[in-house]
Amino acid sequence: MAFWSSFNALQLLVGLLLLLLLHHPITTTTAIRVAGTIMHRPSLAPLPVFREAPAFRNGDACGSMALDRIHIAMTLDINYLRGTMAAIFSMLQHSTCPENLSFHFLSAHFEPGLLSSIKSTFPYLNFKIYLFDSSRVRGKISKSIRQALDQPLNYARIYLADIIPEDVRRVIYLDSDLVVVDDIAKLWDVDMEEKVLAAPEYCHANFTQYFNNAFWLDPDLAKVFEGRNPCYFNTGLMVMDVDKWRKGGYTQKVEKWMEVQKQRRIYHLGSLPPILLVLAGNIKAVDHRWNQHGLGGDNIEGRCRSLHPGPISLLHWSGKGKPWLRNDARKPCPIDHLWVPYDLYRSSRHSLEG
Ligand SMILES: *[C@@H]1O[C@H](CO)[C@@H](O)[C@H](O)[C@H]1NC(C)=O
Ligand SMILES: *[C@@H]1O[C@H](CO)[C@@H](O)[C@H](O)[C@H]1NC(C)=O
């Protein structure tokens, strides 16, 4: 909101002129960022229409303890909008202090329809939309085994610390294909113990498979894990100390591995492996209940997954299958019924706003 409302024709003109004058990309000024995104054509897909969520109000317990807001970051993309809406709805519903949630949405396009869509679905939501300048990452992406993973916006989490306001020091990053069924404040309060990231860790998963032989057989590369016990973690849910991330230059560290990948192909997936290279074995592990992932079916079309035993605070449909698609196709997996109560979708009429 803050950023988009500052968009005007004069800035656009100035931006375009500067862009013509300067051949190297500059990402620090608003005008140029706006101009940059105009050049990527906004999607013309019709926006789905959602019903309005009720107002969620703080309980008495929210009182006046001078605690900071809970900052949530997610990407915003028309193709995942239905999932994003469900995720927001789920967090509001399960929060003791829903008014304390503050959302930061990263979008790759200037798309007024997205802004009005969120506003009309959640009139009381505290949020901002930021443009993610995908030219920052476009040249650094190498083809993965899944096209969906190659979208620039999938890499936005790496740039989060640069995009959200500097006074935000901690943020919870969430994918758009999940629902939270617990009070997100419990995760927010995790003691990071000086770590830059907190997430559930999976030390029984075969870590070797995330990299290929070109990586493991080159001692110069493989030594990056020396002195660490690297474990897989899913980057679809991360508590990030953005302050530490900025000061430690983690964006550049991850980018460095993306450049290695460009030259020598050392892994097959998208944005996950370079983050593992920098941070695996060096994160704060949180309870597995905070990411029951793989519910989309682990990259195998049509395969249904069941829940792992144990308590659950977050259900994550990572993998190829998405609950809204399977439900619409009338081929839901049993697990998809848990997503339905959070679906605010009404129809796919053309939105006339914006
Ligand atoms: C929630 O937000 C209100 C208003 O900003 C603030 O006074 C209160 O301390 C917050 N409570 C918690 C538990 O974060
Ligand atoms: C782990 O994965 C690698 C590569 O896919 C495979 O060669 C290896 O046998 C696996 N190790 C175990 C213990 O399953």
Automatic annotation (TrEMBL):
Compartments where found: Membrane
Q: What is its EC number?
A: 2.4.1.-
Q: Family assignment?
A: Belongs to the glycosyltransferase 8 family.
Q: What highest taxon heads this organism's lineage?
A: Eukaryota
Q: Is the Signal keyword given for this protein?
A: yes
Q: What pathway is this protein a component of?
A: Glycan metabolism; pectin biosynthesis
Q: Which organism is it from?
A: Xanthoceras sorbifolium
Q: What class of enzyme is it?
A: transferase
Name a Pfam family for this protein: Glyco_transf_8
What SUPFAM superfamilies would the database entry show? Nucleotide-diphospho-sugar transferases
InterPro entries named in the record: Glyco_trans_8, Glycosyltrans_8_dom-fam, Nucleotide-diphossugar_trans
For membrane topology, the record states: Single-pass type II membrane protein
**Keyword terms of this UniProt record:** Glycosyltransferase, Signal, Signal-anchor, Transferase, Transmembrane
**Where does the record locate the signal sequence feature?**
1-31
What lineage is on file? Eukaryota, Viridiplantae, Streptophyta, Embryophyta, Tracheophyta
Q: What is this protein called?
A: Hexosyltransferase
